[in-house]
User: Fold these one by one.
Assistant:
Number 1:
Amino acid sequence: MLMTKWGEALDREHPLPEYPRPQLRRESFMNLNGAWQCAFTRENAEPETYEYEITVPFAPESVLSGVERVLQPGEYLWYRRGFELPEGFNIGRVLLHFGAVDQCARVWLNGEDVCVHTGGSLPFAADITELLVPGENILVVRVTDDTDRGWHTRGKQKLKPGGIWYTPVSGIWQTVWCESVPENYISSLFITPHLESGSVELLAGGEGAVRAEIEGESYEFRAGEPALIKLREVRPWTPEEPYLYKFTLTLGEDRVESYFALRSVSVGEDRNGVKRLLLNGKPYFMNGLLDQGWWPDGLYTAPSDEALAFDVAAAKAMGFNTLRKHVKVEPARWYYHCDRLGMLVWQDMPNGGGSYSAVTVSAPLLTGSHSRDDKYAKFARKEEKGRAEFREELLDMVSCLYNSPSVVMWVIFNEGWGQFDSDKLAEAVSEIDATRIIDRASGWHDQGTGELRSIHLYFDDYKYKPDKAGRCVVLSEFGGYSLPIPGHAQTDKPFGYRKFREHDKFRRALTLLYDGQIRPASMQGLAAAIYTQLTDVETELNGLITYDRRVIKLAPDDVKRIIAMPPVK
């Protein structure tokens, strides 16, 4: 079994102790990670005894949880723990937060219902003030998860993993925590940068007057009303200079710390009239990696905050400026590291739907033929409830990550996995967020609409061709060259699109790929290139870093030279 150095050093009593929400930070914070009781049942009733001790927030399928058991469809996963609030902690209201629970969760406190939540990727919270008792409080969470046997969003999880599909993840996989707030508090915060005017727009939830302190300057506005604030100094955010403005908001007795950046992203023409991706109004080649965000010891959950930051910093050291977060939503701290280190993010929506037809998802790759995505049965999307749930979850994801300056693109669907009504969904996303680019269908089943032509290519040489509809062309997946590193792989039968056993041949092939295909295409009009991938994952050994993060397969400076792109003008 592979382990990361951070997993080996894990403090099981205090795992992931960091404040989990950097853009809405309060002094009030009680971390509930650590040892919980855990049990599996076939009946929908809390068990009298709990058979396991589990380290939260690691999924029971993971090594770091201490359980290593898969939650099966039809089973119930139960969590239980007691906690006492420190003296003076409650200053009005107490909120209970879950970073993410996969897939369907119901929560009780002291035997009373708290909340129900469906969707394994996003945070949720509840006011538990009225349910608290003096002394010990008993928290119980029940979870169900059908993985790929249902139509909920699931990403790369599969009950029978292999190749590009990975081990299931169930239950609590992000930090659980409490905070206390006054009766009137800042319930939400939306930050919209306006680089052109050197301003930032703030919209805070709550009631009454809000005071903002931005780098020594004070501003006042009303909660519930958008406030456009002109900044004294304009410093654009880029991957090369990722400047963050730090600020505080005060509403009555409530005070939060946050940050923002000034940057814009769009599609526009270069000086030759070719459609390009623009960063801060100028053509910018987004040179990136596909990033799955999986760990050998923690699966969905990185073993530490340092480990989360390592992936971003390693990609940056190799010369990449973009990560495509592939059909997974990360904890808020991952986006914070991208914000502060300077890494552009293309954010995928996790895929869902029924069992995918190999013909449907492979036909465009073999024939070049793309199907209309209103054929629900063809795309494993017959369930109206499932389509509605996906739409709601997509919009929640956009709202949840709206404030992160590193996120520059929303990717709604990938390779026809549960695809449906992509044009309508793009319109719905744009109503919430008109500041970012949308990739409606990455790979194939392109509907011929939107601003992007998004291409995947693994088996043929890439030659740039202008889009017939005049859209910006991006290569959103390519490469996938595998190089197993003995002692750092989970299999001796690796999956990859081209397989190598020697470093020199691997380096030469990567050099030829960029020299012969990607760099010429970038000069002709290709606007972005996303290489597969950042790390190995389980049996998929096509990463530039091993799954345990102990070996970077090529020296970062070598990779930086190989992938370097000429400036776009």
Number 2:
Amino acid sequence: MAGDTVRLTMAQALVRYLCNQYTTIDGERVPLFAGVFAIFGHGNVTCLSEALEPVQDRLPTWRGQNEQSMALAAIGYAKARRRRQIMIATSSIGPGALNMVTAAGTAHANRLPILILAGDTFTNRLPDPVLQQVEHFGDPTITVNDAFKAVSRYWDRITHPAQLMASMPQAIATMLDPGDCGPAFIALPQDTQEMAFDYPEEFFEEKVWTIPRPRPDRDRVAEAAALLRTAKKPLIISGGGVRYSGAEAAVAAFAAERGIPVVETIAGKGTLTHDDPVHCGPVGVVGSTSANALAAEADVVLAIGTRLQDFTTGSWTAFARGAAFISINAARWDATKHRAVAVVGDALETLRELDAALGAWKVDGAHLERAQALFRDWDELLDEHQAQSNAPVPSYAQVVGAVNRAAGEGDTLIAAAGGIPGEVAKGWRVKQPNTFDLEFGFSCMGYEIAGGWGNAMATQGASTPIVMVGDGGYLMMNSDIYSSVLTGHKMIVVVCDNGGFAIINRLQEFKGTPGFNNLFKDCRTASAVDPPLVDFAKHAEAMGAHARHCESPADLEAALEWAKGTDRTTVLTIATEAYTWTPGDAAWDLGVPEVSEREAVRAARADQDEIRAKQRVGV
């Protein structure tokens, strides 16, 4: 009845509100918030956990081992659910909260939703300074949670229980807005969490949220169509926004009908299957020779759902200076880049309207035929690099090929920063759309295993995520192997052991500095002997996983078949060569010293100046 109230603490009201938010996926009503990743401490254990404990059947709570990794797992979940469901991550105050800043940055850069609830200090300041409080002498209102302002789409601190009623709908609307999607952060002061307030019953009514599909401006569509009709060598760049819009089939059909080749960004890889007739490979710094050749000669580029990061554009050297851009994006910021015709709107709806505006126009069939020939050449190059050899230690490409062959059609490949991203972006042949998750928008080392846990939770056993991680990434963050064993969410983890941070060593040496502090053999060590080797298989077994060390790509393929039949997370390890990489790269703008005593650095600087001379002028 209107006017009725219920007396609850702020924490109890927050949890009740979250439990009553729903969305629809493929016609089925499901909870908008699928669960909570939590590490409890002072700041969230006495009030928030008290509210979460009774609703475990509606809002399950999962125990993480590290605040950063559990928030990264929430990101992996959101990716797998294509931003249609959201996970929550909660921590205590101080270091527990700050551990999640990196994950918030990852979600922000990748336009992904996560609700972060962090404990905070007392608003009344009576017990100050409390445990883990950082005091700012000139501004006592600042706490460590203010650090999240730089990496949140929505930020609030609840200093009175009534503020929930204004704040939470705005936080959710932000996370579900395709043009503004990203992390929402809510700081929960300890004394505010405990306060009771008479909330109106209406606040807790069930609500079904839908993700909006903004339509584009007609004039911009007409302008885009007019420009595209002038093209002789057009190119489509498919970004992550295509996947989140559900526009994969529409992009494939549009490209096939119009005769336009499609290349993919890192986030967009998996929009099309590898063998789709219009698919021509990944573009940019970790791109294919085929896609980069097409980019260099394109006269009109139709960029769909991409923020045009430097790894896509080769630091804006991958395209001719005279190339014109049409950018379809739900975010105005992303659409309005490099003098593009900015068509702001949902990818699926905008593409439909652009298709209608083009009428019967299509490109000369020779353009797509040439693109397909270039892609066949690229495929042959991949075959050459992925073929088994008699080398004592396999290359990344050979390992990627072995894992790819053994993967099932529905199995998702998950990777992140290090040497693996370039190799899987180039060499992973996608068998089914939306089965590729490479976190390279923020290049967050440590995402791999945590993201695999989140993916396994999202897919609920329908497929098995396959995580590929280097030894450096494994050592940085591996505790969610135990999390996945603890919670029963199986994944297969392939650890490529190449003796340290091999890809950054490659870059270091390429720019003129001898190997230094990247590979273990080049680090300051306790003795002159070789650094100790980590037995990753034994380490994984100690966390409850099954594990096996593999001696060759053929051995790895056999082990992957065994791993598919195990009853829990399984870790496979293999030594990998640190100096051999698949070609196909575009240029990348980096800071290289203007002056140096090293001839190799001076040569690298000269090369860098040549790269900058090729860059397109614009913002």
Number 3:
Amino acid sequence: MENSNIEGLLDTSQAMLDYISGWSESASYLLAATAVVTVALIISYRAKKRILFGAWTNRYDTNDSELGKSIADLLLFKLRYIKRTHELSSTRISLWNTFEDIPSFRQNLDKEIDLLASVQLGNYGKIISGTFTFLFRLFPLFIKPASLSGTINRYGEKKTILHISLDNYSPRKWLKSENLLWEKVQEDLEKENIPEVIEEMAYRIYIDLTGGDLFKSWQCFMYFTRGLRSYLNYTELKRQSDLEDAENLYLQALEFENTNPVVKYNLGVLKYYQYQDHLNDEAIACFRQALNCNDRNLRARASSAMANALGQKYSRYKTGKPNSDETILDAMEFAERSVILNKKLDSAYKSLAYTTHQYGEAQAARENNRIEVITDYEHKSTQIRIKAIHHYKRTLRLNRKHFMAQNNLANLYLEWAVQLNGNKTTLSFLRSWKFRLKESFTRQVVIDRNYFLRKAVFHCEEALKVNPSYQFAFDNLGNAWFERKDYNKAYLAYQNAILYAPNYAEAINDLAMLFLVREFEGYSFQKACEKHKEALDVLKEEPKRKEKLVDAFKKRMTDLEITEKGCPDVT
């Protein structure tokens, strides 16, 4: 009896093992099949984001067998040129030039969309072109890349019609493809005019592929793209002719769409970075018009740009309503709006930090930067400054390479340290680490003059690691070394600022004031006066900035107890 029970148990166990084994084998086949289908779908989806260009069917001139290839090749080149221009606007302008605050807005294709010549046109070094063509022929049901083809037809003696079709294109949805068609009717088309017609078609196709509605006409988009290319050239080579070309092309674009928000925004960028009071006002007008659009990202950038331009108006140019915070409060409101629109936009937080920073400085200045005020954590100006520091740090968490945020944070620490001049303390290595740990774990800002100066030097150097020609960071670095009484390092920093921006009046004036210091080995009152005059000559058309430099020079002479005569506008 006992043996039969054991045999029954063994039989049951064996049956269960056989069932599990059979199920596992089926599951393995199912998983393998699922994996194959998934990979096929992924490859198919990605294939549809690769647009293969084939030769056109030529019914315009049947004797010219190469015309179809030439037209397809030209269209491919034009579309790549447009795409490359807009891609460069987000890389060059955003990183290596002093244009990070308000980067140019681009009208870009999905970064995964690639424009490829088919084997019919030639490989052009693109192995992927031939690979997709091979896979398409091998697995036409699964691997079917998007293909762009066209025909050029002649009807009668005068009328020519160009048809372009994009088949199997899937820009956004996995399982849904689109077929797009473009047509152009041209009277009296000659071969030498074909490039102009193809250029028009390229801009029309590009606008449709972006899926946006910011441009209503291809002509506006064409002039805007050309203007953007000229502006990119200007940021690289600093040729005035490129800047003028960019502005003229933007204005030509506005002749077709006089309120286009993208063009208005980029025109504002161009004017803002010329750092002149009246052009800053024109930039504000452009940014205000750019706010009237449906694109959330553009509205965020335009709001950030408005904040920066109003901040410049308040702090750099000293214009607007005198003795009033209305301008800077408006700037802060635009910055806050930018953050709400796009919480991942680094320039939004930077504009909020910058405007908050300037407001805090104004509040402290109204109370003459008294020690008991600027060291009191409960005081309004101190709380505002601490908010600005946190906003700058948030910007840098989003983008460590935001060199303008690095420089502006350095400037905040430097200005605060200068006002703490009567609150000098020694800062040992251990004390510095104690402050760092306290800030890291409590997020509380430690108010200490020497600690602020060290942080100012650190953030200036971080900015220069990203942009080694950034004149504002060199000037701030010089001021930080000056406050630390390392005058030789200050001299080198000022010289670098002027090297990269010969007409940077503030740096020239800072260098002039360094020559007033008797402890500096290059001390020369005469040279100080010469450099001061040079700085003032740069600002002939900007009385507010000129007055600011004169006041700074006078104060330095008073602080150093210099009574010599002979400097222009000072003695």
